[in-house]
Amino acid sequence: EDQVTQSPEALRLQEGESSSLNCSYTVSGLRGLFWYRQDPGKGPEFLFTLYSAGEEKEKERLKATLTKKESFLHITAPKPEDSATYLCASNSGGSNYKLTFGKGTLLTVNP
Amino acid sequence: DAGVIQSPRHEVTEMGQEVTLRCKPISGHDYLFWYRQTMMRGLELLIYFNNNVPIDDSGMPEDRFSAKMPNASFSTLKIQPSEPRDSAVYFCASTWGEGRAFFGQGTRLTVV
Lengths: 111, 112
Hints:
The structure holds two protein chains of two kinds. By secondary structure, chain A is mostly beta strands. Chain A has no helices and eleven strands. In chain A, a hairpin with a 2-residue loop joins strand 6 (56-59) and strand 7. The chains are: A mainly beta, B mainly beta.
């Protein structure tokens, strides 16, 4: 059974203090590793898809990387508006569209 | 496009009552998903459809849950009878491509 584990569960940063979120996955035949952002009271919003080890993607202050066992979401010089829950999900070979989500990391950036 | 539209946004019902959640996917998307989110279990896939046909319902917790997609622009998730442990946020999502699902705002269900 596919498993996705995110750490830490919660992270509190000061504005400008860079850090990383971790997503460890155990899947058979990874087809994709996805990052989503979720704001309170809203649905998850797509950020990135990574398909192979060594791949990196960037968007503003966020950069996602992928190894054979984990993915990192690096946040550089975060701002208060980056505060949200960040969700990681895997898509394994059994089904093109069945995502297994981690429980997320709640990021709070203080001004 | 207005995105994935779910209704109602909030639902409070008594145990034993029937609950129907509704979803309108993004036009042109041929996959539709129903997820449930709780603090304990996170975001779980309940069922998904392709071209209005249910493909995988292995995440549906019990026979009390049923989902339909009568056409490309509408889907329902029904719980009958509802129980307090069904309280959660239910999300509908749609996509045309692998993994990049677009989520609705969710329906917060409270069963008392």
